[in-house]
Amino acid sequence: MLLVGLSCFLIAIGVTWVATPAVARLARVFGAIDHPEARKAHTSPTPRIGGLAVFCGFAGGMVFAAYATGNLMGVPQADVYWRGLALAATLLMLVGLADDVWGLSFHWKFAAQTLAATYMWDCGFQISSISHPLGGTLEFGLLSYPITVLWIVGITNAVNLIDGLDGLATGIALITTITVGVIAFARGELGLTAASVALAGSLIGFLPFNFNPARIFLGDSGSMFLGFVLAVTSVRGSQKGPMVVALLVPLLVLGLPLLDTSVAVVRRLYRLGTHGVKSDDNSVVYVVRNLTQIFLPDRGHIHHRLLDIGMSHKRAVLILYAVGSSFAAAALGLVLLKSWWLAILLVAVLIVTMTAFVSLLYLRVARVERAGRPVPSGRSEGRPAAEPLVATSRGEARSRP
C-alpha cells in the first residue's frame, strides 16, 4: 500500500506538471486569458484555467489507485460514493471552466453547486448526526439534507473567496489536503487517504506555476473543484470519530477559508445596514431586500488587507500559509488529544488569537485611512500596485460571489 500511495502521489505530480503548460496554451486558444488592467496586479496576459491541470493530475492519481487496489474504500457502497464524488467534482470543474472562458452569473454557479451537493447527499454523504459531550447522539433527521448542502456549498464558495493572490488558494488547499490525509490514514480510511494523496500531488505539481509571480491562475475551474472536494473529504474523514473530531476537526481544517468568509459576510451585512440608515429606510428591510448583494465581490478580504498595509504578495501569502498551518495543527491536535475539555481550550486559544489577528489588521488599515494617507496596496516584485477600490486584486474573481 505504501508503494501504491507513493506511485499515486508521483503520478499526480507528473500529470499536473506536464498538463499545466498544455492547459496554458489551450487557454490562449480559447481566449481564457486574464488581461492586465490598471486595477490588476499582473502586467502580462495570464491564463486562468489552471484548475483543469489540477483536475487532470488528481484524476490520473485516482485512476491509478483504483486500478492498483481494485477497491478504494473497502466499505459497503464504496463504488456509489466515489463514483458520485468523481461525477459531481467533474461537473463543478466544467461549470467553473465555462465561467472562466465565457462568464457565468453567480445564480448558475450556485445552482450547479446545490445540484452537486444534493447528488452527494443522495450517494450517501450525509451529515446526519453528531455525538455530544454529555453522551448520546444528536440526530438531524430531515435537517440532514439542508445541513449537508449548506456545508458543501459554503466551503466551495469559501475556497473560491480566498483565491485572491498568487498561490494562496493552492497553498491553503495543499495544507488542508495534507491534514485530511494524515487524519484519514490514522483512521484506516484508505480510499480517503488515496484521494488526499492524489490531490496533494496535483497541487504540488501546480504550485510552482501558480506562486508569485503566477504564470497561470486557478480560475473558478480550480477553486470550485478544490472547494467541493475539500468540503466532502474533510467531513468524510471525521464521520466515524467522536464528537470532538466529527464536529470540530472539519471546521479547523478549513479554518482560514471559513474565517475569511465569515468576516466577509459580516462586513457586507454591516455595509448594507449602513446604506439602509443613510437612505432613511428601515435598515432591516433594506438588508433583506438587498440580501443578494452579500455575494458581490469587494476588496475587503483578509489577503487584501495585508496588501493594504504595504505587504508584498509573497509575504502576504506566506503569512496566510502560517495561519492555515496553525488551523491544521489544531485539527491534528484534536485527533491526538481525544479530550473534549482540552479541545475546548485549544479552540478557545485559536479563536482568541485569530480574532486579535483580524482585528489588529483591520485597525491598522483604518488608522492609515483616518490619517488621510492613501492605503498602500502591496506591491509585488516588478508589478504595479493594484487600484484600492476594485472588487478584487485578481482577474479571475470577476464573477466570484
Please outline what is shown here.
By secondary structure, the chain is an all-alpha fold.
- Low-confidence parts: 72-78, 376-401
Distance between the termini: 41 Å
Helical stretch count? 14
| DSSP helix fraction | 55-70%
| Whole-number mean pLDDT | 79
Number of DSSP E strands: 4
Name the strands of the widest sheet in spatial order: 1-2
What is the approximate shape?
globular
Q: What class do helices, strands and sheet pairing give?
A: mainly alpha
Any idea how many domains?
2
Radius of gyration: 21 Å
Strand content: under 5%
List the helices and strands and how they pair.
Elements: H1 2-30, E1 33-34, E2 46-47, H2 51-69, H3 78-101, H4 106-123, E3 129-131, E4 137-139, H5 144-161, H6 168-186, H7 190-210, H8 219-236, H9 243-253, H10 255-278, H11 283-289, H12 302-308, H13 313-337, H14 340-370
Helix pairs in contact: 1-2, 1-7, 2-7, 2-8, 3-4, 3-8, 4-5, 5-8, 5-10, 6-7, 6-8, 6-13, 9-13, 10-11, 12-14, 13-14
